[in-house]
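Can you make up a polypeptide sequence alongside its tokenized fold?
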Amino acid sequence: MNNSDFVAKQVTIFKESRHYFDELKNVIIASLDGFSRGLRGMSFVHGRTKEIASYAEKCIRKQHKYQHPAWQLTDPTGVRIIVETEDLLAPVCQYIRSNFEIDEANSVDKATELRESEFGYHSIHFIVSLKPGNPYPLPNISQELFQWRSAEEAKAMGILPGPIFKAEIQVKTLLDHAWSNILHDNLYKIDLNKRPRPVVREASRLAATLEKMDTSFVDLLHSIDEYRSYYGAYLSPEKIEAEMQTQEIVLSQDRGNKAVALKIAQMANFTDNTVLLQHVVDDILTDFLTSDDHRFQREVGKIQYRLGQVHLAIEHLTNATELKPDDTDNWCELGQVYQEQGNYSSAKQCFESAFTIHPEYPRALLGYIVTKLLDGDNNTFLPLLRHNLLQSITISEKRIDAGTHIPFAWYDIGFAELFLGNLNKCIDAFGKAILLSHSVANVAKTYHTLTGLHARLKDSREFADLFHVVRAYFRVILAGRYEKVNLKMLEAYANNHCQDERLTTVPIDRCAELFAKDRPVVIVAGSCGAEFSAHVRTYSSILTTAFENFSGTICSGGTTAGISGIVGDLPDPEGKINKIAYLPDPCPDEGKIHSAYTLRRTTTKKNPRNYSILDAIILWGDIVASGIAPQDVRLLGIGGGDISAFEYRLALLLNAKVGILPKSGRAAYAISNDDEWNSVKTLTYSISEETTKNARLGLIQLPEDAETVRAFINPAPIPVLFDTATRDAMAQRVHEQFIGGQRTVLVNSQPNLRDWEQLDETYKAANYAQIDIIIEKIRRIGLSVRQVTGRDIVNFDIKPYIDKLAEIEHGNWNMNRLLNGWSFGQERDNTKKIHPSLIPWVGLPPSEKQKDIDFANEIPSMLAAVGFEIFDPKV
């Protein structure tokens, strides 16, 4: 039975019995009301029976638990009795126990669920039924309310025996009622799946202090409501459509329910599925298109605009402003439509109305500024709005802390910081907005807005360069992050609206010469200042080992100081490394440029500038234009300042593989501790080039271990010597040897100790990874591997090489785990993917080193089992 049929059946049962639940509610109210009159002070008794929509939704959400919700739900009707102080709770509870049958298993005192340090929802909940023979104050009570379901009947239905009709009674104080009514019912009974953790934390703090309750509760409620409105922004397209389907089933049981219809409309505005959008307008909202509720008019207008029905959209959005002219969002939505249609005069009027209502509301303020500029006003008014801009940033930051209005709050901060002239903060905010955007639409809209503003401000000494850099930043992200963005069309749009530099420093057809598709590209970023040279020189041995026998392109700073100096000094006896530096002309250290680099100048001597983030943007523009997928590029970060921090973030946004050495300090340490940039990890299953080619990774925090860094920037290719069957057999043998000495009750009880057939892909991949680097490890110690036929295999003595083989093995094990989303922690936790051995080889405990040594000792016999032997090619 599908969801709709199941809900329809249960709702039918509930509708047929709802009058009994109503009657039960009235009996309880009359009984408690009579008793409460004898209590000290004020007391209140009120009740409700669930509406059809509420009941239908609960059926959907509880169907995994209940087969017969109509008879298993404990709160189809409920009553609250509210008393003044806590000392009055006991006599009320005693009265309830004396006059009603109590379902003890489902009754609860909420205060007992709070820990000692918590303050919050104190309420006593009883699940009750009428007690036969008790003198209730209402006459002619239906006898059905006293009936019990027999054991035989209950068994046949698959439920417990007991009273057929139950109700919930809540007993609480006035203070608890205020808490639950204002916060608990809105937050914990929120009808969407996710509760924002920061909002819950803030609610607990308010409940603990209870100071400034009125204003604080109102502010928090606004955040919760806003979270509901923008809930779709937090979900994947699949989850949005699933939630909309749930709400549509609920609406089918209560067609006139405006609240449910509004939820569907709000959710629809966060999907790019035009077929679904049209279905919402044609089949779901038809009964509400003429609603006098301004929220309906606004949401319908937004949907119609996204469907390309501009005139209808403007009509509905205009209706919204007329129905509630003091709502800033109504004016902002209408203004946004006019702005995107190029009607800047009308857009400015709308945003000016919103700005007048709330001059620090981010969307109103920024829309007002943007449309004034687009409509031809000069920027002399901006200094007058500095305070408003700072306040709008504060409001946006509070929204972000509360987990609401994301990613839009980050876009708002980005524009505010841009108008304040703070490039680094602007770029960081825009980057976080892009990181949290599910769709390219908001990124493209922001780029187009920046393009229009740049055209208006290109002669402004204060803003021209800022917009120049920010637009270039958006262009390279649009071209590199989103596959469906047409680069040429994007550039044509830019050229038609605002003259600007090309995305690349050289003609696009020459970019392939700079970055050959068949050769790896690694960016080494970090501290390049002379004052940091002594510190970063400690990483020279790591980089030398990591890039040994590397063949490809390395991009770095180009000077003789710091990290770029180490890269310039890397040995390249066979000329396999192409070292490229992107530098302004002239650069501040023109006399200290390392001779090993091929230079790409990012400015001309007519327009000189210092090092800037534009150098990194142009570098990535050339990479993208060359046809290299950004996810195939690796960036290694060691220390660094503001420019390096930008390079790390840009590479993450472009889905490059970004490895940071956090202990190197400064920018590397900062980004490793930034939750927004350090929270997203997409799993892959091997460190080999073949299987990681299309992997999207988050930030990888590397231990300061040369072999781990080497495995990150220079992964071993899949060995051509092993066919698929041989590789499978060897991987399975590795796993069997691993669990061979552990065949106790623990086997199959831990995910990494299961038999091969039941082993999770993550752990299988780890075994394959060990096989895939055997050839590379043997080559690294100066030996080779060959297949043997027609003679016995010679058992080569590798004991002199065991320690080095074990160290290489550990570095590759580290990288395999890091690429699969694991991180370092003192205690191992397979569920959270935490492992204490994700550290450098030198710090590894002897017992853990022995595991790698044991594996190294097994390599000759492992190869021999499949017909291969180790030999010295020099002999």
User: Anything to note?
Assistant: The first helix runs from residue 3 to 36. The mean pLDDT is 81. The CA atoms of residues 427 and 719 lie 43 Å apart. The chain is about 50% helix and 10% strand.
